Amino acid sequence: MGNAMRLPALRLIDPCAPRAYATAADLAGLGGTEATVLRIVAGLAPLASVTVEQSARKLPVRQGSVAFEPMDLSVRSEALTIVINSWKVALTVARRNPGARVYVWQHVVPGRHNRAMAADLSAAGITLLCVSGSLRNTVSGMLDAPVRSRVLYNPISDDLHPDRTPRDRDLLIFASAPHKGLDQVLQAFCALRQKIPSLKLELADPGYLAWPVGDLPHGVVRLGSLSHAQAIARMRAALCLFYPQQRFAETFGLVIAEANAVGTPALLHRGLGANDEVASDKTQCIDGSDPDEIAERIQAWRTDPPQVRANPEFRLRHVLSEWGHLLSGAPITVAA
Fold this sequence. Notes:
Strand content: 15-25%
Number of domains: 2
CATH architecture of the largest domain: 3-Layer(aba) Sandwich
Oligomer: single chain
Radius of gyration: 21 Å
Low-confidence stretches: 331-336
Mean pLDDT: 92
């Protein structure tokens, strides 16, 4: 995205976040969606007037050239508008601002009750921006009518690379919220540790959702809520991101992309959500319900770990370029 380009004014509406955020310090206890919003608006701000409206915000603030304001759907605006996840809010914005370009930035699988809104989205000219091809396919398959859509990946930092941090061949790490299949991960680890007793598993929780996990098995250490830098440091030291659960379908899987970017493989369940799409080396995707396959892969990695790296399409520089193409009016495709 060249510096000479000037983009249209951008209005981003977040009706979903449980509390207001405007800086990295505000992200503690929030998820990857909010972190992605801040990365994108900070990258676009030098090239466009950017306003972020949040339903949880009471008072306006500015961070650099980005204005963070309380959500107000009664405002008339000609700005290109991005609504996070809420189809109802997007339709409201489209009705109140005829002719405005309106998008839904889809980070989650929408509820089945939304399927009937597909025709309304299409009639209003609203486009879905999905964070992975997997999510786009899932959403397209559940709709009652075709809706315009395109894929815009969540970004990882341009400066995430492998370094000289020594890897502990006995250390595995789980770095997601507990509701993302932690019970299955713990079961898999207990079975694995019977075969490799020296293994240990660290649990890094982003802290945005309380989830009872009970007494932890031997060899499991709870790290609590870590900063992003701390979580990256622990991933650098681990043999792998241990994530063989088969229940929670990641719509992108930022932690998977970041682990690969620093050279750490991720043990993933094949065919679940965006796992196969985000994993840079497909040997990372196995049958997560098979204890023998898990043990075989971990044993192999202890001797000869795969040389995983970041997918260039996930780098912030590339993702911002794709956003630039979107905002400047690049053609999009129609999902059947």
